[in-house]
Write a structure and sequence with these properties.
Length: 169
C-alpha cells in the first residue's frame, strides 16, 4: 500500500521577498493566516540566517518579527553539510561578504531534516526558492546535486492548494 508522504517546506529568503511583493499587490489576510498555520505545524521551516536576511521595515519583516522561533539555528550536522556543499560548489556564496549567507544553510537544514526522516518517518523535505532552475550555481542546482527536492513558490502554492487571482462575480 502506498502511503501519502508528509511534506516539509524549507523556505529560502527569495520566497519571503516574493511573498512581500505579492502582498503589496494583493493583500490577502487569509493567506498569511494559512502560512502561519503551516509554520506552527512544522510544515514550513527556515533557517535563522534567512530570518537575519529579511529587512525589518517592510511588510514581511514586520509579519515575521514575532516568528523567530520557527527559524532553526546552526547545528553540527548542518555545519558538516555546509562544508560538503561548499567543497562541491565553491562559488555558491560570495566569499567577500562578511556576514553569513543563508543559501547553503537552507540546503544544509533540508539535508539534515531529510536524514532524520530516513529512520521510519514518511516525510519528504523540499527547499523552496525563487532562484532559476537553469543556473548551475544556485539553490536548484545544489539541491539536485545532493538529492534534495526543490520547488519554486508557484509549485509550493499549487501543492498547498493556494492561489492568488482576481475572482469575477
Amino acid at each position: 500500500m502506498n502511503e501519502l508522504k508528509e511534506k516539509i517546506f524549507c523556505f529560502d529568503t527569495s520566497v519571503f521577498t516574493s511573498l512581500n511583493r505579492i502582498h503589496n499587490i494583493i493583500p490577502i489576510q487569509d493567506f498569511w493566516k494559512m502560512l502561519e498555520k503551516l509554520f506552527k505545524s512544522d510544515k514550513i521551516i527556515s533557517h535563522k540566517y534567512v530570518f537575519d536576511e529579511i529587512k525589518p521595515g517592510d511588510f514581511i519583516g514586520k509579519w515575521i518579527q514575532d516568528k523567530e522561533q520557527y527559524f532553526i539555528g546552526v547545528t553540527d550536522k548542518q555545519f558538516q553539510n555546509v562544508e560538503k556543499i561548499l567543497q562541491r560548489f565553491p562559488d555558491f556564496i560570495d566569499s567577500e561578504k562578511e556576514k553569513n549567507q543563508a543559501d547553503p544553510w537552507v540546503i544544509a537544514l533540508a539535508m539534515e531534516k531529510s536524514e532524520e526522516n530516513l529512520f521510519g518517518k514518511n516525510t519528504v523535505v523540499y527547499v523552496v526558492s525563487q532562484e532559476k532552475i537553469s543556473s548551475t550555481k544556485k539553490i536548484p542546482a545544489v539541491c539536485k546535486a545532493f538529492n534534495i527536492d526543490h520547488l519554486n513558490l508557484e509549485a509550493f502554492l499549487k501543492d498547498n492548494r493556494m492561489r492568488f487571482g482576481i475572482i469575477e462575480s
